[in-house]
Design brief:
This protein is an alpha/beta fold. The chain is built from 17 helices and 18 strands. Bound molecules: ligand ME8.
Length: 516
């Protein structure tokens, strides 16, 4: 039975204090692949992304540029929205935290936490990183020889002292640990889970959840001198978009709790400690899973504006092609680990897996069909053991990729698909259909039929990862529109003999580096 239940997946919402970089593009591409996979697998999907527009970092950046924070947010949020189009992301909504709907939900969750007795007024004195928008214990910071104190992510911290509302995070320590224990899948991958558990075990202090020294944020209900700490409002975006706290509940309320929040490893603490504690306090259901991907490194080095190695996703896509870039990141980087990229690495993957792999298999087999089978999908004669094994390998991909994708192991799912491409190459070479043409045309037809059906299944399965190219492949094998989802995989959607085919056009050209 296919699972048709709602599936809610989110990216982090990005700070629009600058243009999107390749790390943002990576997270969006990966989350898009997971959303598309679930949709094709029959789930009713809600995929959310957006921008996190409040906070001190936004206000400081705007000031430095001589514009208002709202102008900065408008300008760069538009860039993030353009990136969803550029990358062919299938998000169902794009949330901006400056929208009225979000202000309403943030106030609602604040009131729920306050009504539960978890918010009190006091004064905060401690270290704060504006770049991370995070409070740190002194023990987590270090004073370096340059005279500057840095937080655990390597960003400078400053001393903050102000009147502030606090959230009673300390009282949630045991409940959080119990939740991690009882829900071993709540945090992935395992390294992050261990990191979070040891952080919580080391002791939680109450969290400052409002600021008074600037005003770019959502006002605290009944105390307009305070704006909410940006992470309180940022995390709440996931609820806002579902309308779960609206009165009456919004149409998308059925999507809460989220199936998975996809984020980078640097913000696991906010998602796996603060967010579940806020929700527990508000009496709301917790997300089922938080999965943190790794960081993208440029030739092994951290990207930074000062090193000058920050790659603009627009340039990368213009240079290599969108599906090529999508494929590279999804296949090359073990999802959950850091990954390194370089132009050479991208070129190698494109040529080995896409041009020489799936592209070549499709063009060789389909052009033989067009030439030798009257331009139609041939008849499938009696199957040999090799044919049965070949079809079984392709038919088995749904079950194995489903397991991988449910565990966010995107690279594994793709590796399994490409392994079947290699197997089909060996099958095709071993069966020598070109030699059978004279000696046994019925057998030739069967080999071509089997190969074409493997191409069909590969194309269906590649849709989440390289959507536009997979569509071209499906057109080449003349797969009807209603036979392109995963229900058509395996025997259910086998190619229909006699269906006319056009001469195949190349789907994945070889990458040739431009002359220096
Ligand atoms: O953290 N490689 O926003 P952000 C991979 N607004 N991923 C990267 C990356 C890199 N080099 N650099 C950043 C925020 N990311 C908050 C989130 S969610 C309620 C609020 C990832 O613009 C990063 O880990 O700094 C995060 O998941 C996302 O990009 C947005 O980062």
């Amino acid at each position: 039975m296919t699972d048709k239940s709602p599936f809610y997946i989110t990216t982090a919402i990005s700070y629009p204090n600058g243009k999107p970089h390749i790390g943002h593009a990576y997270e969006l591409i990966a989350t898009d692949a997971m959303a598309r996979y679930q949709r094709l697998d029959g789930r009713e999907v809600f995929f959310l992304t957006g921008t996190d527009e409040h906070g001190q970092k936004m206000q400081q950046t705007a000031k430095a540029q001589g514009i208002s924070a709202q102008e900065l947010a408008d300008r760069n949020s538009a860039e993030f929205q353009a990136m969803t189009t550029l990358l062919n992301a299938s998000n169902d909504d794009f949330i901006r935290t400056t929208e009225p709907r979000h202000h309403e939900t943030s106030k609602a969750i604040w009131n729920l936490m306050a009504d539960n007795g978890d918010i009190y007024k006091d004064s905060y004195a401690g270290w704060y990183s504006v770049r991370d928008e995070a409070y740190y214990q002194e023990s987590e910071t270090e004073l370096r020889p340059d005279g500057v104190r840095y937080g655990p992510q390597g960003t400078p911290v400053e001393w903050v002292q102000e009147e502030s509302y606090f959230f009673r995070l300390s009282t949630y320590q045991d409940r959080l640990l119990k939740h991690y224990e009882e829900n071993p899948d709540f945090i992935g991958p395992a390294e992050r889970r261990n990191e979070v558990i040891s952080f919580v075990k080391s002791g939680l202090k109450d969290l400052s959840v409002s600021r008074t020294t600037f005003d770019w944020g959502i006002k605290v209900p009944n105390d307009p001198a305070h704006v909410m700490y940006v992470w309180v409002d940022a995390l709440t975006n996931y609820l806002t978009a579902t309308g779960y706290l609206d009165e009456p509940k919004g149409e998308r309320a059925k999507f809460w709790p989220a199936d998975v929040h996809i984020i980078g490893k640097d913000i696991i603490r906010f998602h796996a400690v603060y967010w579940p504690a806020f929700l527990m306090s508000a009496g709301l259901p917790l997300p089922k899973r938080v999965f943190a991907h790794g960081f993208l490194l440029n030739k092994g080095e951290k990207m930074s504006k000062s090193v000058g190695n920050v790659v603009d996703p627009v340039n990368l896509v213009e240079h290599f092609g969108l599906d090529q870039v999508r494929y590279f990141f999804l296949r090359e980087v073990s999802f959950g680990q850091d990954g390194s990229y370089s132009e050479e690495g991208i070129a190698t993957r494109i040529n080995a897996d896409l041009a020489n792999g799936i592209g070549n298999l499709a063009s060789r087999s389909l052009s033989m069909i067009v030439k030798n089978c009257d331009g139609r999908i041939p008849e499938c004669g009696p199957l040999t053991e090799a044919d049965v094994a070949m079809l079984a390998a392709a038919d088995g991909l749904l079950a194995s990729t489903r397991d991988d994708m449910n565990a966010q192991q995107i690279h594994r799912a793709l590796a399994a698909i490409i392994a079947v491409v290699s197997e089909a190459d060996r099958y095709f070479a071993g069966q020598e259909p070109w030699a059978l043409k004279k000696t046994d045309p019925v057998r030739m037809a069967t080999v071509l039929y089997v190969t074409a059906d493997v191409v069909r299944q590969i194309a269906i399965l590649l849709q989440p990862f390289v959507p536009a190219s997979a569509e071209k492949l499906l057109n080449l094998v003349a797969v009807p529109a209603d036979k392109r989802d995963f229900a058509a995989l395996g025997a259910a959607g086998r190619l229909v003999s006699g269906t006319p085919l056009d001469a195949p056009s190349p789907v994945f050209p070889r990458y040739v580096a431009p002359e220096a």
